[in-house]
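Sharing a chain and its predicted structure for anyone who wants a worked example. Both blocks are below, sequence first, tokens second.
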Amino acid sequence: MNSASEMGPSTQSGEVGTWQRMTQWFGDVGDSITAFFSPDDDTDVSGVVTQESMLTVNPTGNNPHLDGGVIGRFEDVINMNITPKWITQRWARVSKNIQSGQWQGYRVPIVTGEETNDLAGALTYYFDNQQQLQRISFRGTTGEPQRIITMLQQTFHLTKRPTSLIGLYIKSQNRRPVSVLMITRSPHATTQNNAARYSQYTIQFELNRPSIGTQLSDHYKNILAAK
């Protein structure tokens, strides 16, 4: 495998371009990529972002990419059929020191595209000891939330609930919330620069696999209890 110094000029510029795109989405509105790898709740352990393999500027190829490569649909990266192997084959940087109870989390940075209705942030996938995906969580930003709202309503059956937030959508099971999407206005929404167009709203969601005893994490239970 080639080192960064052995890559050609186009490869190095491609890596820089990816970092610039990601840091523009986060840094210009007062956040950082590193902050999105912080723990979600008290049971999580903040992991060090490790490089699983060399970066590539060929996001449609077979090598891992910094932000997961080209993402045609949200459903490509937000579905319950994802495996740990698929994650490490797609992302060049994965934080694997994330724990939630008996589940192991894989946290990755993601930028789904360059439209205002795309997402930028961090996805965390939680697997049980059989390596079956049980939970997906996301924290990040978007310039227009309707696309992710529609996808989660149609695919995960979340419904709109009364709230003082910009938006609150919940999937319930036996009268208990088991999945949630929360939308708030970014504190930097009035910032007058191009990057702010993509960061008007803060998006947080947690999606749990439906099964007997499914429940939200303590982190989201506490958030909902305070609303």
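Comments welcome. The first strand starts at residue 50 and ends at 51.
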